[in-house]
């Protein structure tokens, strides 16, 4: 789960990482209240999870309440690359002497934590990595040992941070690592990490991605869930505990297993169609799950055909077939289904589907993934 | 021959008295796997359909001589269960648990590396391993795995994705091609066993004559495998990589399956494998057909 900047800063604050004083606002009036509290000048920042908001006019400096009102009015409701701005973060504008970059992630190849630190912050780190890779200090950290203050300090020295920023930088690195590990982040990034003229160091931005698997030990994450930007299809799927991702095409997809679901998308694409979604129904594929899955797919108005791709391993074919028959009795589908049922007891399953008396205009069965994909794509195209 | 497990492997099930552990543990026994015990703290002395239950892995090992463990416990308990098995001297651990936090996985992996170098962990979040006719640990339906033949040629399977592992087994069964061992390494960010670990074993396994590899988007495990194949694997291979059409930035079910920052794309992985001499199928069936062609020529 990706956090908005303001949530990231609030999360940082839990781990004592210094951030600019500020607050979040949903309305222009609230923004002015936050600006008054933070102290002028302030920066009004659009809260969207997409890069390039500064260029899009989503970050503005305000020297007084009138300016804050003016900018908040412009930014709230603004469309930035398809993301509508619902909130602004208003914080006291910082004097900046230097801008750095710091992040912690898991390096999957090395299977260690990775610190990336650079004295060249404020720009995309990918750009620095391409144009000036030696400007990034990369330090692998054994998760068993963690990050010591000495190692953090040495990293700041190696990254050639300003000598007066070394202690403050090391302090933030240790706290950011604590946030990354105890806070169960997939990514904890500060860009820019700033050095102020007064010698202080603090986080001017916050990019935090949380590991959903760790939600069980973080009740404080509930409030972040509430602001996640899901479309209606995705919200409905979440209510039913389905692994669903909305896409742009016209072939609705239901498959069991993430790999098979991905593979189904690929095959639909190969035969000239486009998937409307990714949906992993999981191992169960029983009547309740199938009903929920079909409801979510049916909700999507762009779906013109539905491709159900089930491989029975432990889940037996006849159970899947019974589930589909029961689900069809509960959901009034707009689009026809093409099913490919294979694996354990697939023949028994197909026999149940055939005996259920479902008209061919509503459901057809195909023996292979490829044939089923062809049929589903043809239906979606109205052939 | 087979890799990692064989007909003599003695397995205990951590979580045997739970729903998943009981269901799959008994299925594994029915398949012919030597399931010699179960572990559930506080339930030592009981039994599950004749399989004795112990309070700790150490007790179970002392009583049964088990050398492998099948872990089917919830995510909160799994990291401790893995380390307990390693501490008790278990050499091969299969953990099917889905949903372990990445921070815990990274810590467990590095603890094993440092303190228990003789222990191999398969998973977490994997379907397990099957050597058809010999041993089945995990959730694979044994009946979809074709038995290997003494004369060969037999195929080894290594896969990052659960259902696609079954799909690969099924494709080979349809074509009557024997399977030496099928390893599902799982889709999590920090798998205990990776492609290279399996490829290395398959390369030296006398019973394996060719290898199918099933990859998916995310990370760089397939690219690293391609480098290894180029330098070390002489046995013919086919492969499939799922997720060609997966949009960037969206996690496709698995914690590991995500294209981020332009890295981890299916196309990049397929290109790397192709450059290493692996035949690439555009779907699992095609990878199976390519393998049938390879086997015919052996």
Question: What descriptive keywords fit this protein?
Answer:
heterodimer, A: 383 residues, alpha+beta, Dna Ligase, domain 1, D-amino Acid Aminotransferase, Chain A, domain 1, Rossmann fold, 3 domains, four-stranded antiparallel beta sheet, 13 helices, elongated, B: 298 residues, seven-stranded mixed beta sheet, 9 helices, 35% helix
Ordered list of secondary-structure elements with their pairings:
The complex is a heterodimer of chains A (383) and B (298).
Chain A: H1 5-14, E1 22-25, H2 28-38, E2 42-46, E3 59-62, H3 65-75, E4 79-80, E5 83-84, E6 88-92, E7 98-107, E8 112-118, H4 125-131, E9 136-141, H5 149-158, H6 166-182, E10 185-195, E11 201-203, E12 207-210, H7 222-226, H8 232-239, E13 243-246, E14 251-255, H9 258-270, E15 277-280, H10 287-299, E16 305-312, H11 317-330, E17 337-343, H12 346-355, E18 363-365, H13 369-380
Parallel strand pairs in A: 14-16, 16-17, 17-18
Antiparallel strand pairs in A: 1-6, 2-3, 2-6, 4-5, 7-8, 7-10, 8-9, 10-11, 10-12, 13-15
Helix pairs in contact in A: 2-3, 5-6, 8-10, 10-11, 11-12
Chain B: E1 10-14, H1 19-31, E2 34-39, E3 47-48, E4 51-54, H2 57-64, E5 68-71, H3 78-87, E6 92-95, H4 102-115, E7 120-122, E8 128-131, E9 135-138, E10 154-159, H5 162-174, E11 178-184, H6 195-204, E12 210-216, H7 221-232, E13 237-242, H8 266-275, E14 279-280, H9 284-296
Parallel strand pairs in B: 1-2, 1-5, 2-4, 5-6, 6-7, 10-11, 10-12, 12-13, 13-14
Antiparallel strand pairs in B: 3-4, 8-9, 8-11
